[in-house]
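Following up on my earlier message about zinc ion. Here are the inputs again, as you asked, copied directly from the submission form:
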Amino acid sequence: MPFTLIVDDPSGNSFIENPAAPTADQYCKKTHYLRDLAAYQFMGYPVDQATLQAEHDRLKEKQLEEINSKDAKFIGRQKAWVKQTKEEQEALLDKATAHATKPTTEAVAQAGYVDFSKSVEDQSQRNELAEDDPRKSVMKFPTPCYQCDKTGNVQMCFSSIPFFKEIIIMAFVCDFCGYRNSEIKEGGGIGDKAKRVTLTVDSDQDLNRDVFKSQTAKFSIPELEFDMEPGSLGSLYTTVEGLLAKLIEELELNNPFGQGDSAQDQ
Ligand SMILES: [Zn+2]
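Thanks, got it. Here's what our run produced:
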């Protein structure tokens, strides 16, 4: 320390907590910038539509309401979920349930692939009943395991990141093979502009800041000449420290040469 953490997100949907909120954050710089063609394509827009939208942004630098309402379906080319240990997943659910909210119809619609048998109304009703106890508003439904194909369970809960936005957490657990992953979806479509957040990490308090990295965000640490490819790590709601730990884990997984021979004793 100190080092700089940069989170750069074409969807505008990432966030670093300001421990002093609502007072301005002197160690954290946020910039918004216009999305270009490549950014739209990266978010999953087909080429012609990406061209139109980038052009649209350039010509009319203002609210993109019509576009925004249709966006949710485009973001999805990148890996959205992130593999987790039991402890990581429990920490995430604790964080989420601390700010649990009643799902809005919009949030339920945003959840996208949740086409399990219940209607939107039934889901909301269940949550209204449990309003006094946020943990009870967690919904559970069966889904096939990524790893072994047997049936595991997704727990879904609605939450909000303070001073940011509503999120939907999908935490998957397979009782057969123990595989876990979590996926976080943001409510409210993409931001009006892309967003880059630059934080100077200079204390333990900075390491403990909450970070939300959406699936389209990449992050970098210039002091370490480190650049994480966008989309290579899914959506994460953690702390600066948690993000670094995930980064180290990912580097070890993807770079077997860095582990030495003794690490591969299968
Ligand atoms: Zn499994």
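One observation from looking it over: Residues 145, 147-148, 150, 152, 174, 176-177, 179 surround zinc ion (CB under 6 Å). Hope that helps, and feel free to reply on this thread.
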